[in-house]
Each structure stands twice: as structure tokens, then as C-alpha cells.
Amino acid sequence: LAFVAAKLGLGIPLNEIKNTVTKVTCACFEPSLDYVVVKIPRWDLKKFTRVSTLLGSAMKSVGEVMSIGRTFEEAIQKAIRAVDVSNLGFQETSALMSIDQELQTPSDQRMFAIANAMHSGYSVEKIWELTKIDKWFLSKLKGLSDFGKLMSTKKVADVPSSLFRQAKELGFSDKQLSIFWSTNEQTVRKHRLEYDIMPVVKQIDTVAGEFPAFTNYLYTTYNGTESDIEFNDNGIMVLGSGVYRIGSSVEFDWCSVRTVRTLRDQGFKTVMVNYNPETVSTDYDEADRLYFENITLETVLDIYQLENSSGVILSMGGQTPNNISLPLHRLNVKILGTSPEMIDSAENRYKFSRMLDRIGVDQPQWKELTSIDEAKKFCDAVTYPVLVRPSYVLSGAAMNTVYSEHDLANYLNQAAEVSKDHPVVITKYIEGAKEIEMDAVARNGTMIGHFISEHVENAGVHSGDATLIQPPQDLDGETVRRIEEATKKIGEALNITGPYNIQFIAKDNDIKVIECNVRASRSFPFVSKVTGVDLIELATKAMTGLPLQEYPPVTMPADYIGVKVPQFSFSRLSGADPVTGVEMASTGEVACFGRTKYEAYMKALVATGFRLPK
């Protein structure tokens, strides 16, 4: 649309503007669509305590997803799953309030309130009276609810091919079906392939197949008989960032786009998988093929097998792709970069902790505890304050800093269930320590590029809410040396190929590792742009075995400093507590340059819209 609007603005008539999708029709040719698109917003209200969840005239969502299908049912189920990994589709979920109240007052949970109402036996008529949502939508959703109930009475071995296909045509995922049938996702997949039920790939062509389309803009569907394209590219798949949310946003889109561009410059065919309409990666001219699809085990595996892809890069899209690295690897998908077993070693607290002890890198004391008494004993031993992370959260309160035994008892009783199945992890919290961010790239365990950024706030403020300074201004030379040494050791121990990020805390030159992410982090774009060294290009070349220059020269003038400052949206979230802590709350960021850290910081603060005192 922007392309057409710009040409119209220049005075070019519609009949002279080419349709970039079909390449043969002009812009005055009326589009006809043989697909349905659903867009759903993503809210992250759980991140804020005491926030009002009521939806009204002030926007509260932080991102959105888009899904494409051949039927409304298929598209809406895909979109619901895309919003959050924990959503399986349109089905009932634990209710936050009474169904009637939830239906009458729209909140971020409204879709699930409708599912709960249908599951409890409400009629379309009754839900319409409470919500005034068009009955066409409600009757389609009721069809999904009823079909789900039917499915939950079956066993996987008893489901005939026709019913299985119907489930897939209605947009039910393998994982969703596995829960109905009390089995696992791979068993469902095995049965599906035995019945020869596979998705077909369709093009977005805006003319419903009336003219041949030359587009690489694709989606998968079960409502079709043949694919629109030939699969002979064997391209490298790059998994995108997924939905923007607090903690994972446009930074990862920048990383995946830089990856695709680097691969294309080097002559590789590329396949982009993402489902976020706000991103550059979902522009159909960025990659050789764009799949507007969910980043889940089932979908990625289907596309990988259809495309006969030569490998998957999943370290550029944040945590969403990283979460499926091990299952993909176990199903013989070729993962480019660090081995998924090693990614798991960094993400599993026990494995990572044992590895740090083995290579002689320090970490704060921590322990996983299964009862409140044990928790109290451990806290007395390491002394307060401590950082508490429950593994199972009831009230949406996740990590918290606790300063006394009284606080600990209150927090654990109110926020989480502590038991053998739901342990709580308690870490010694070091007061007055500096937090330092290390972004690095390695090849076969050898570091080939790194940058250190310094946090302005002391440790205990989430790295996504912290102000970053690059290059660091107040770090002791010895601290820097120790951080580089520890990063080298961790890179070797995990045999990393590609990007990684480590967060350190330092006090009196004593450094400790808080966590290590074996993927691009949210500070990669910032350090790459400040220094003029594209770490993502370097990482992509390392992962694909291309020739590269280790430690490329920094193009930034010596007397310049970059400062990154978070952007908060508390003014839109009535009732939210505007204090930053260990949970991330910012929704964006800005960065500015200056000749001193104060000048750069001042510029960046003004850029966020912060009114400076006179």
C-alpha cells in the first residue's frame, strides 16, 4: 500500500502502477482473495502488578500476530497459537474471573472467556447477548469448541483418516490433538504421516489464481490439494522473532534480517519463517521465500521437509526459536551454528552451573528448593537479600528480590506453590554490584569478536530495562580482562559457533556470571551500530563456514560514546507500578551518541520524551 500511495503521490495514475505480486496486472485491477487473514494483538499485562486489564480507548497491546489460512477456523487457531507458546488453540483455559463478568467486560483474556463459556454449555445466543460479537464469528467458534469435545472422546489409534484430515482442516495442531488423545505430539505426527496428511503450500497472489503469480510469499494450509510452487531451492531456513512482546522485540527482527541479507549476498538461497506483520523480515522481497507461519516444532518441521532445506538458523530470533532447537535436532533437522545439546547445557541451570565450576568461572550461590523451610535455611546461610524464581507461578508474580524472612514467607505463600514438582530457585543477590553485558561471536569455540557494554543501573534491574554505555567508561582494566577470560572459557566449553551473550556482575574486580544465552541478544543491534562492526554478519559467516575477518576494525571515532535508554509506557497502563526490578517492563528503546557519557545520556533521555527538570 505504501508503495502504491507513494506513486499516486507522485501523480502516476493507477493503471500505470504494476502490481508487484503478480507482475502482470496493474494497481487498478480489483483484488480477489482466496485466503483468510487473522490479526490478533499481544498483551503483556501479566508483567505489571495491579494493572487494569480492561480494554478501552487507550492501546495496551505490545505486539501483534498475523496468520493466513483457507478458512476462518484454520486462520484463527493459527493466530491464537502464535500469540503465545502456551496457547494450544481455541479451547478452554483456567478462568481469571467469572465467565459472565469476563464476557461483559472485554479484557486481554476475552477469547478464552468465550472458549470457557462454550465449554460450559453456553449457547451462541447467550454469548451474543453478553458480548454483542457477531453471531457469524460465534457460530464458527462454537463449531471448533464442539469438534474439540468430540476429539477428546477418541484415542489416536481409533481416529479414521477422514476425521484426522477434518481436524487439520479446522486448524487443530498436532500438539493440541495429542492432548485430546492423551499421547505425545510425535505419535500424532507419525499417524498423520501414515495417513499421508501433509499441508500444501499456497502463494499470496491477490488474484485468486486468475493470473500466474511470481511471488515467494507463502503460507501452508490443509485446505488444498496441491502446492503452488516447486521445491528445488534447498534454501537455508532462518527463524524470525515471532510476536513482539516485552523482552523480545524488533532487536531480533534486525538480527534475522541481517542474517538473511548476509546469506543472500554470499549466494545462498534463503527461507524466512515468521508470523509478525510489523517486521521487516515478513516483507516478501527480503528472502527468496517467505513463509508467513508459526514458529512451532510442527510447522518448522513441515516446511523443512517440504523445502528439503540445507539447514536451519535459529539463534537470531530470540528465545522462541531457541526453545525448539533440541526437539528439532532430535528429529534429525540440521541446525547451523552451536549444537542444540550445548544450547541446552547453557539453559539448564544444573548443567551450566556444573560446567562453570569445572572451568573455574565464578557464579552467585544458588539452590533449587522444594519446601518453604528449606528455602528459609538456605537464605539464612547465604544472608539476605536473595533473588527468588518460582518454577510454577500462580498470580503472575515471577522473579522477585526478597530482603527478609518475613518477605520470603509472604512472597512464597502468595505467589507460588513450593513442592517437589514445583521447586523454587533462590540465588544470593549481591547489592551494589555493577552489571556488565558481553556480546560475543565464536567459531568452533574460539572467540572471533566481542564487545562489552556497561549498565548504568546496579545489578537487579532487568538487562532490558537498563541503560547501556558502549564502550564502557567506568570499568577497571582488570575487570575487563577477567570478563574476556571468562567469556573465552565459556565459548570453548560450549564449543560455540555463532552469537552468544553473557551477563556478568562485578564488585571490587570480582566477577560472577549471572546467565549465558547461546543466541543473539537484544543488545547486538546496539553494539553493532555503535561500533560499526556487524556482529550478526560475522556470526552468520561463522555458522555457514564462510571466510571471515576475525575482530573486524571498529569504525567509530575514539572520542564517541553511545548510550541506550529504555522507553517505558506506564502512562498507558493504569494501576501499574512504575518501579523497575528484575522483571522487564520497558516496551522500546532509543540510543544516542555524545562526546561524553553525560551528553549521550541526556540526548537519549530527551529522545524518550522524558521532560527534563528546568
Automatic annotation (TrEMBL):
GO biological process terms, semicolon-separated: 'de novo' pyrimidine nucleobase biosynthetic process; citrulline biosynthetic process; glutamine metabolic process; UTP biosynthetic process
Highest taxon, organism lineage: Eukaryota
Record-level GO cellular component terms: cytosol
MF annotations from Gene Ontology: aspartate carbamoyltransferase activity; ATP binding; carbamoyl-phosphate synthase (ammonia) activity; carbamoyl-phosphate synthase (glutamine-hydrolyzing) activity; dihydroorotase activity; metal ion binding
Keywords: ATP-binding, Ligase, Nucleotide-binding, Repeat
Domain ATP-grasp intervals: 353-544
SMART domains: CPSase_L_D3
Catalytic reaction annotation: hydrogencarbonate + L-glutamine + 2 ATP + H2O = carbamoyl phosphate + L-glutamate + 2 ADP + phosphate + 2 H(+); hydrogencarbonate + NH4(+) + 2 ATP = carbamoyl phosphate + 2 ADP + phosphate + 2 H(+)
Pfam families in the cross-refs: CPSase_L_D1, CPSase_L_D2, CPSase_L_D3
Name used for this protein in its record: Carbamoyl-phosphate synth
